[in-house]
Structure formats: structure tokens, C-alpha cells
Amino acid sequence: MSVDGILDESERKVVNEFCHLLEKSKQLFNGLRDLPQYGHKQWQSYFGRTFDVYTKLWKFQQQHRQILDNKYGLKRWQIGEVASKIGQLYYHYYLRTSETNYLSESFSFYSAIRMRAYYSKATKEDSLSQVQIPDLMVKKLRYYARFIVVCLLLKKMKLVRDLVRELAKQIDDYTSTYEPEDQMEWNLVLGEIKAFIEADNIINVVDVDSSTIVLSHRLTPLNTPPADKGAPVYLSLQEILIVGNCHEQVKFSELTLDMFRMLQTLEREPQEDLTNQIYDVSPAPGRQLFENGDRSRRDNPHKYLLYKPTYGQLNTFLASAFKELPPNGAMLLYISADGCLGNAKHTDDAAYDLGGVVTNSRREGETPSKGKRPGVLKEMHCLHPGDLYPYTRKPLFLIVDSDNSSAFQGFPTLFGQPLVCLLSPEQVPTTMQDQHQKGNLFTLFLHCPLMAFCYVCNIIDIPITLWDKCQMQIDKFMAEASKLFVRARKLDHSYMQFFGDDFLRLLLLRFVLCYIVLILHRGFKGPSYYPVSHPSLPTDEILEHPSLYKIVLDLASILEVRGLFAEPGEGDIIA
Known about the structure:
alpha/beta, six-stranded mixed β-sheet, 13 strands, Protein SCAI, SCAI, transcription corepressor activity
């Protein structure tokens, strides 16, 4: 083990302790993949032990770096590996808790690796060692891919583009030097990242010097829609499932573009500002990880991100979220998926005969038994409205963005609990039909209404001063619509049960904006082009209220696209 001479007793203790911590950390890290992906309590103590060991390991190598360098032969890429593992730990802790501050912690470690060039000398350092250089190169490539995901989620787009260029160069070096078997896979990863970034860049908000401004769309005190003072908060959003399976939509790292947008919509902006963080001191996990164990103190609702789940997987996660739902808690299920048409257009059985949405395209058990007609078989992984009926025993807020969303329109209230369904339009104008890879329009409205408004008006570039002026109109709309909700006498009671929660109120008000924009826009002609809510929102009190119409048309005038919108009461507006 000794690199430089014979070890004395104290040096041997240091090296042995380091080797022990290193081995222990690897064992615990590898055990993370065996933990259940659902539930709250089953995994938390294991994560805590893993963090404890990595904290000790990181501090230990800092305190004894000279001995470990000279006597153990510690290399910079090995330090980078430890930092990378801690970055992964924080990222996975974010995924499990939904707390965005852990994304910032992950970023700090990944950023330190790059700024200190821990991996830059990997090939030189280990040209004579037992470690295979191609394996080190793969570690470096994986690090880049993970760092890019974290930066995307934190909207650090300039850094993302720098990292993509660096990753492209690293892949070129790797493939030209070693001609590896996974060459095509890494080029596919690179292609996915580039396509994702391009598809997400729908509207270009520019500064006075024409440089692009990156905007965050998480919830902040500035964009939280106002609530009536003294209004009771009946329910709070506690559990979220975000499901994605759109065949034509771009995706990266198990996230479709719709999933990526919706998860940000359902998070608060991270509290910690990393712009002034100093990286000349190695970052280390500094605070107690269990501060978010107390669910009442949590900033964000807990969420599951499910990319192409099978029916069995989706049902398992639904059951877990249902079980974990506390008293006065609500569950939100968001599904962005391709439609699966039913066998009957007119039926008394809305639970299954109208089809649903396909959450996974995997084919299982397609061979029909003797005597059974193939036409009777239904899609294995189609989620039907009836599949969700058992979960309406507790408050459920459902969002379906699909070309068969109408299958969920007749949801019965079987258990008397609050239930709201927000359903996307099933059609878009022909001019937008080849844009599916850029995400669905309904989700874009729920994510950033002004961006969606610009998109349907074919506005690509917008100065930041004009954007801010338009955003004031959006804020005005939200405040006015919020008042109308509170005053409405014909409003189903379910809505007011959910309205006290900041996130659910935001989604309801953005739904109303989406409806009014599309019903007034001349390019959207007919009921299948408009979103639908269940129970129905009152048209005269909310959906077609003159004050809301006026704000939307004023917004169109500010953007000089008033001609794209009809006058209220014109014949081509179909209520």
C-alpha cells in the first residue's frame, strides 16, 4: 500500500481508517439501489447512515491529505469519485424528498469536481496503475451526464451548454481512443441532451444587449396567486405523482419535457442562493439530513416521477401515496401520455369502455386464450378512469394531458371526497401538430402561461421589458380570477376544498387562463380544442367572465397580436 517509504504506526492507522471508510461507503452506496422507491420511512435511516459515512470519509481525506497522497497514493480522480458519490446522494435525496435545497447541495459538489479538475488527469495518473483507463473515462462521462441533469433542474442553462460541449469532446476522445462497445449509447445520450435543450427553448426572452435571459418557473412569493385573507385552508397538497409516456416527446434521464416542466411548477424556488458560493474550500454535507423528516416543515409536497411505468408499477406508487396521505392532505396525479381509445363511443360504463391513457408501451401476454376474440383484449398498460376509482376515497386532484383526455370527463364522486379533474384539449391546430416533441400545450400553460400565450401567437423573441409588462397582466388575471372563485355561488364545493393550497390554486387559475386564451384564439375552433374541467366550472361566474376576457385581450394588444383573437360573442367562439 505504501507509495513513499515505510509507514510508521500513525500513518498506518490513517491509511487503514481511510480504506475502512472507503469500503464502508461503497457498500452503503451500492445498497441504495435495493431500497424501495416508494414510501417515506423505509429508506430514510439507511440514507442517514450513508451520509454519515461519506461525511466522515470526505473530512478524513481533507485532514490527512498529505499522508494519503504520499503513503497511500491517493489520486485526484479518486477524490473526485467520492465527491461525485456525495453529489449523487444529494440528488437522490432530492428525488425522494422533493426538497430543492438538496439539488443545490448536489450542484456544489459536482461544480467543485469540475472547478478543481479532479478528473482531468485521470488518464495520465493511471497509465501505469491497475485501474483500466476506459473505466475511468466512463466514470467521467457519467459524472458529466449527472451534472447536466442537476444544472437543467436548477435552470443553469449557460453552464449546461458549456457542459454539453465538454461532454461531446470527452465522448469523442473516449470513442476515438478505445473504440468501445458503448460508443453508440453515449452518442445517443448526447443527442438526447441536445434535443431536450432545443425543445425546451420555445420562447427567447432577451435583455437590452440581445443576450438570452433564463427565467425560473418555480413557485415564489412573487408569483403565488393571492388568496382571500381569512379564507379557510381545507386541504394541502401532500403527495404528487408525475407520469410521462408521450411517444414523440423528447426526454432525457427518465424525464420527458412535460414531466420536467410540471415538476418545477410543483416546487418552490430553492432558498439558498449559490451565485456567491465560494469553491476554494471543499464542500461537505454540513447540516442534519433529517430536518425534512418532519413533514409539517416541508417546503414542497412529496412527489414521485414515473417515466413509462407499467400498470403494476403505477398502481404500487398510487397505493403508497394514498397510504402516506396525512389527514387534510390531497393527492395530485398528473399524467402526460398518449391516448388509448376504448371499444365503445356510447356506453353506460365510463369506467373502462372509453379507454384511457397508455403509461407504458411494453407488450405483455398478447397471445389470446383459445376461444377468446382478440378484439376483446384491452391494452395491458392503459390507465382507465375506473382504475382510479378506489383512490377517490381521499381527496384527489387529477390532471390529464392526452389526446384521449375526455375519457376522464365523467368521473363519479363515489365516496363524497373532494375530486377535481383538469383535462387537456384533445386537438391542436394543424400548424402546431408537428411540434409534439416540444411538449404539450396544456402543460405549457400550467407551467408558464405567458410562454404558452406567446407560443400560440407565434412569438419567438420578446424583450425582457415587454415580458415584464405582460407578466403584470398575467398577475392581474390571477388576482381577478382568484376573487371570482371565492365569490362564485355555482362553484362545486370540491374546488374550494383545494383552493387554499398555493400549488393547486395556481393550477386552477392557470387552467382558467388557458381556457379563455384558447376559446378567444381564432386558430382553436371547437370544443375538442379547449380544456375541460370536472366538475364543470361555472361559465358566467368564471370561465366567460367579461373582466377576465378583457385582461386577456389587453394582453394580446400589448403584444400586438390582437387580430388573432375574436371579440367576445363572435360566432366562432363555441362555449
